[in-house]
Design brief:
It is a single chain. The protein is α+β, with helices and mostly antiparallel strands. Among the domains are: about 1-40 and about 450-580, Aldehyde oxidase/xanthine dehydrogenase, molybdopterin binding domain (Aldehyde Oxidoreductase, domain 4), CATH 3.30.365.10; about 360-445 and about 585-730, Aldehyde oxidase/xanthine dehydrogenase, molybdopterin binding domain (Aldehyde Oxidoreductase, domain 4). About 25% of the residues lie in helices and about 25% in strands. The strands form six sheets. It has a seven-stranded mixed beta sheet with strand order 4-6-2-14-11-12-13, with helices on both faces. The longest helix has 24 residues, at about 515-540. The protein starts with a strand and ends with a helix. Bound molecules: dioxothiomolybdenum(VI) ion (MOS). Dioxothiomolybdenum(VI) ion (MOS) binds near residues 246 and 353.
């Protein structure tokens, strides 16, 4: 039996509130946590069979042109080498998220430096690497290649659907009491998941099994099958544990297809793990952005105009473009609005989804601009934002499903001690350290994605949750187990959640912060159906049934579930999909950030001393995993503000800093104790759980709080991120 729900209307009842097990929302440890921290959770490369061969990807060393030839035979004669794959089915780059079909497959047509062109397969990894390093490519490089978005010869695309304008922004700018008109730039980012992309392929006849590291298995299966030219039902992908994704594992990547082709040809399992350098060069990057923001406000600081125009980049034929202005249309009031979006077509590693595509960089720029408006108008930054919270989505005229920005701002300001801030920059000093406070708003769109799950109540009265959903470090095992435990009245120890297998009901996958809410809804629906089946057995009404600690309670009857089941089991599927709700209301999550920094007056170095994030994302399913997501997001925010930046060589676009020694993510010493407050909220429009996505909220605008604090400390306004010391010291 399947219980199906299309979200057309708000839910009329908070069903989880009726439940009495008391586990939902609790800060429960991850059920798989011990396996992970003791190294016993098998990731893709940790279950290699005896006869497994190893493949190493070969990269192009030009940014555009043709691969004329490879010295295949010389390499195949080296010790241990079994095969050099130059199959036309090899992928040029990973699929974009939710593509469901193969990305571009042309390895002899070079479009970017570092593009995979071949796979060398050997008996050992070392032999394969040796072969890949020795291989000689005959490359015909194009003479003129555009690799920089600001190259005057870059082709600039202006997609009509991504421009929007209401009112007259120019007029608003002329008539405003206070204005800001500035350019902001953010560099490219790489997802930098701890576990590099890795696939182990093996065939049984014409059926392929792939142990991989992926975020969205139902899409990945379709992409892999399409790339290989085989039926989807001949492909099984297993990814029970995934060491981080951040967008980079949304779509099937070159190593998976290469491993599958090699394994088929050799008749042995083949494992291909990307090196860290491969990951930087071959996996979709976040585009650098150049943004112009215009703000026009009346003398009370009320916005009468907002303009946000962005230039991003991608390869000529890639459809994705960083949705920089995603939250700008609805975050603040203002009747004159302009949104612009342009794409420079350049030959760098293609761009795709990375950690909150859109808001992460777009809100960062917008929130620095708001700080500039606070400065010119003399209005406190928190107060300025409070004055500009709209009644309804100002660009579409539709209501908000819920709106918590004001509460996030006031709660944060009070908890952080914001009133102690001196608005005059450069006034607080401790020895050679200049101290400053900054803040920013957070917002992220909320989505529901079609998702299925199966729940079985075994004859022993235990629950098993099954779906092809992934846990990419986000806490999926925990929250799905909690939902089933809560709905079926079971202790957590009596629930087992099985994930990451395309043989199981297809889920939303992990991405866009929608995983827990979408797939959690599917689990919830399956449990509702099981509850209905229990009522049938006990001949009672759903409202009269209480499930707790493995017992069904109806009136004064209290029956152990196993006894009630009498050797049988109950099973049900839940199926949810988005409906009209998305169009009837604007759904989003909100928050606020507050940061205290110390900037060294001698070196220009910035240290973040304290940071607070206040977030509301509907019902919180697990207070610990939700908090951890926010900690991670804010940590990335600190990196985005101060150190993180993908650097491309201006001449050929190759990535210069393609490892963690040169690509500076924040480390422990860079991150202070971060304080997180999760606000109590329900959103009836989101789903029956009334939970919204929290995964990416913590990075949306976080960097602006830090950069704004640097300004308060020093008076230096950095508009070109990251705010490295060279950019700060010049202004001191
Ligand atoms: Mo996300 S960047 O959709 O994993």
């Amino acid at each position: 039996m399947t219980l199906h729900l299309k979200m057309d209307e708000p839910v009329d009842r908070d069903r989880l509130e009726d439940m009495v097990q008391g586990v939902i929302g609790e800060p429960i440890d991850r059920p798989e946590g011990e396996l992970k921290v003791t190294g016993r959770a098998p990731y893709a490369m940790e279950q290699l069979p005896e006869n497994c061969h190893h493949g190493v990807l070969v990269r192009s060393t030009i940014s555009k042109g043709r691969l004329a030839d490879l010295d295949k035979t010389t390499i195949e004669a080296l010790p241990g080498i079994r095969l050099v794959v130059t199959d036309r089915r090899l992928l040029r780059n990973p699929a974009q998220g939710m593509a469901g079909e193969a990305p571009v497959q042309e390895t002899d047509n070079i479009h970017f430096f570092g593009q995979p062109v071949a796979l060398v397969v050997a008996e050992t990894f070392e032999q394969a690497r040796h072969g890949a390093q020795r291989i000689v490519q005959q490359l015909q490089a194009d003479t003129k290649v555009v690799v920089n978005p600001d190259d005057p010869e870059a082709e600039i695309e202006t997609p009509r659907k991504k421009q929007a304008s209401t009112g007259d922004l120019d007029k608003a700018m002329r008539e405003a009491a206070f204005t800001v008109d500035q350019h902001y730039t953010t560099p490219g980012h790489v997802s930098a998941a701890m576990e590099p992309h890795a696939s182990l392929a093996s065939w049984d006849g014409d059926s392929l099994t792939l142990h991989g590291s992926y975020q969205m298995l139902r899409f990945n299966r379709a992409e892999l099958a399409d790339a290989l030219g085989i039926d989807e039902d001949k492909v099984r992908i297993l990814a029970p544990y995934v060491g981080g994704g951040f967008g980079s594992k949304l779509g099937i990547a070159p190593e998976a297809v290469a491993a599958a082709i090699a394994s088929k040809e050799l008749g042995v399992p083949v494992a291909v793990a990307m090196t860290r350098q491969n990951v930087f060069e071959m996996v979709l990057r976040r585009s650098e952005t150049s943004q112009r923001i215009r703000l026009a406000a009346d003398k009370e600081g009320r916005l009468i105009g907002i303009g946000h125009e962005a230039l991003v980049s991608n390869l000529p034929d890639e459809s994705f473009s960083e949705p920089v202005t995603q939250a700008t249309p609805f975050l603040y009031r203002g009747e004159n609005r302009l949104i612009g979006h342009r794409i420079a077509r350049i030959h760098r590693t293609p761009a795709g989804s990375v950690r909150a595509p859109g808001e992460a960089v777009g809100l960062t720029a917008l929130e620095i601009a708001l700080d500039e408006l606070a400065e010119v108008s003399g209005i406190d930054p928190v107060e300025l934002r409070l004055r500009n919270i709209p009644e309804e989505d100002p660009s579409q005229g539709i209501p908000f499903s819920s709106h918590t920005l004001a509460e996030a701002l006031t709660t944060g300001a009070e908890r952080f001690g914001w009133e102690s801030r001196d608005p005059k920059p450069g006034t607080v000093r401790e020895g050679e350290w200049m101290i400053g406070l900054g803040m920013a708003s957070a917002a992220r769109v909320n989505m529901l994605i079609e998702s299925k799950a199966r729940v079985t109540l075994t004859s022993e009265g235990r629950a098993v949750v099954e779906t092809d959903m992934t846990d990419i470090g986000t806490g999926t095992y925990a929250v799905l187990s909690q939902l089933a435990a809560e709905m079926l009245g079971l202790p957590m120890t009596e629930v087992e959640t099985r994930l990451g297998d395309t043989g199981l009901p297809p889920a939303s996958g992990s991405g866009g912060s929608f995983g827990a809410a979408s797939n959690g809804t599917a689990v919830f629906l399956a449990c509702e159906e099981i509850r209905r089946q229990i009522c049938e057995k006990l001949t009672c009404e759903p409202d009269d049934l209480t499930l707790k600690d493995g017992h069904a309670i109806v009136g004064n009857r209290r029956v152990p579930l196993a006894e009630m089941l009498d050797g049988a089991e109950l099973s049900a599927e839940g199926h949810t999909e988005p409906g009209d709700a998305e169009d009837k209301v604007r759904q989003a999550t909100y928050g606020s950030y507050f940061a205290e920094v110390a900037v060294n007056a001698v070196t220009g170095e910035t240290r973040v001393r304290r940071m607070l994030g206040v977030f509301a994302a509907g019902r919180i399913l697990n207070a610990k995993t939700a908090r951890s997501q926010c900690l991670g997001g804010m940590t990335f925010g600190i990196g985005m503000a101060l150190t993180e930046e993908l650097l491309h060589d201006k001449r050929d676009g190759h990535i210069v800093n393609r490892d963690f020694a040169e690509y500076h993510l924040p480390v422990n010493a860079d991150v202070p104790q971060i304080d997180i407050v999760l606000l109590e909220e329900r959103d009836r429009w989101a789903n029956p759980l009334q939970a919204k996505g929290i995964g990416e909220l913590g990075i949306c605008g976080a960097a602006a709080a830090v950069v704004n604090a640097v300004h308060n400390a020093t008076g230096v306004r950095v508009r070109d991120l990251p705010a490295t010391l060279d950019k700060v010291i010049g202004g001191l």
